[in-house]
Amino acid sequence: MNIFTDGHTLVLQGAFDVRSTWEVRDAIYERLDGPDDDVVIDMTDVTTIDATALRLLAVATRAAWLSGHHLTVRNPGPAVRRMAHLTRLAHAIEVERVAATA
Hints:
The chain has helices spanning 21-32, 51-66, 78-86; strands at 2-6, 9-16, 38-49, 70-74. By secondary structure, it is an alpha/beta fold. It has one domain: 2-Layer Sandwich (Transcription Regulator spoIIAA).
């Protein structure tokens, strides 16, 4: 798992699983403790995800909301969306809405 910062966005690349959850967790909570209101997690290049990683996103989303912030997931791929629905955590993670084009 590679984690990059692009402004207010955390960019994740690779396999997001139990081996990388602590590293991602630390990066998320570091941003939530900072002066910025929102955290965006770009998951465009996340190849696989497991239930532990999704649980981390759900808990961090709730923690952000409770502290008056927002945590939003951007561009979750098909594997991420499928696992979110299988684990029934899709409702607990805020996904960035993209306007439909005509």
